[in-house]
Design a protein that fits this description.
The chain is of the alpha+beta class and 341 residues long. Helix content is 42%, strand content 11%. The strands form three sheets. Strands 1-2-3-5-4 form a five-stranded antiparallel sheet, with helices on both faces. A two-stranded antiparallel ribbon has the order 6-9. One of its GO terms (molecular function) is kinase activity.
Length: 341
């Protein structure tokens, strides 16, 4: 038995539901994640990865591992690299919450977008691949992938602003006037629907990608918890938002970094190359999309903080550290809304 669940119960369930499975198995939790707890499952023959909903009381629609399983299975064999999905267990009596089993993907993962220890050409190649995969996600034929019903119709930003405003209010622990002002501004500045309806990842950044050990090829996009059918510029703006953060372990950004000297792309180059790949002439009113991303991340981190305080976070200490960024994201969101740094 691991500290988090009964491995013998998982092994028994897999024996009945995963052809060829043979135990015994051991489970080791991956560190650092703040969404759905994830574990390496080791057996004598091969390894797997288990991803589950966290225990405890959860907000409605949060931590939907069932959706993660569905979208990754739909993407198998296409231009968007994902781990192979095996089985989904929706029976909460097995370990206390739903979970799914996927292949272990052995690749390189980078916490820092400054990519320390690499050469300038290597950095540029990795960012180019990151850009390619993002465009590929947004070019997925959602009808052919049977994902047309993966998200509601209508204005994506309208429903997202409404959803995350409710989530933030439900988990609020401090009075943050900047967050209140930002939510009000977003509510009154929703752009008209331009007809783009694509798959969106919802948390697209470098540390959610696994790369080959000997090249810049992306092997898998991870953490599809926030994925839906929506508007692609939210994913694009999320990359730019992340890079604006402090270049620290907690911030995982590029603020103050000499990108040109390191071979890293500018924000504008990343946006332009993305537009080229998708056949777009450019993006108007990018400040809204950036402000939206700051707002959503503030709401997400507020939820992480609340779970840490309640004692059911995947990594409570890390959760409290991340929660300290909520005021900064709110301030930066207001800055993006006003067109200021």
């Amino acid at each position: 038995m691991s500290d988090d669940f009964d491995t013998s119960a998982v092994a028994a369930w897999l024996k009945d539901h995963l052809p060829g499975f043979e135990g015994p198995l051991s489970a080791t939790k991956f560190s650092g994640g703040q969404s759905n707890p994830t574990y390496l499952l080791q057996t004598p023959a091969r390894n797997f990865v288990l991803r589950r909903k966290p225990p405890g009381v959860l907000l409605k629609s949060a931590h939907a591992v069932e959706r993660e399983f569905r979208v990754q299975r739909a993407l198998e064999g296409g231009d968007v690299p994902v781990a192979k999905m095996h089985v989904l267990c929706e029976d909460e009596t097995v370990i206390g919450s739903p979970f799914y089993i996927m292949d272990e993907v052995q690749g390189r993962n980078f916490d820092s977008p400054s990519l320390p220890g690499m050469t300038a050409p290597e950095r540029g190649a990795l960012i180019d691949e990151m850009n390619r995969v993002l465009a590929a996600i947004h070019d997925v034929d959602i009808t052919a992938a049977n994902l047309s019903d993966y998200g509601p119709s209508g204005n994506y930003y309208r429903r997202q602003v409404d959803r995350w405003s409710k989530q933030y209010t439900a988990t609020q622990t401090d009075d943050l006037p900047d967050m209140t002002t930002l939510m009000t501004w977003l509510d009154g500045n929703i752009p008209p629907d331009d007809g783009q309806r694509t798959l969106v990842h919802g948390d697209y950044r470098l540390d959610n990608l696994l790369f080959a050990k000997d090249s810049a090829r992306c092997l898998a996009v991870l953490d599809w918890e926030l994925s839906t059918i929506g508007h692609p510029y939210a994913d694009l703006a999320a990359v730019i938002m992340q890079w604006s953060m402090p270049a620290t372990r907690e911030g995982r950004g590029l603020a103050g970094v000499d990108r040109a000297a390191l071979g890293l792309w500018s924000d504008q180059h990343f946006i332009e190359r993305y537009c080229e790949r998708r056949g777009l002439s450019g993006i108007e009113n990018f400040g809204f999309y950036l402000a939206f991303c700051y707002f959503r991340m503030a709401a997400i981190l507020q939820g992480v903080k609340k779970r840490a305080l309640d004692g059911n976070a995947s990594d409570p200490e890390r959760g409290l550290q991340l929660g300290q960024f909520v005021p900064e994201f709110a301030r930066s969101g207001l800055g993006a809304a006003k067109g200021t740094p």
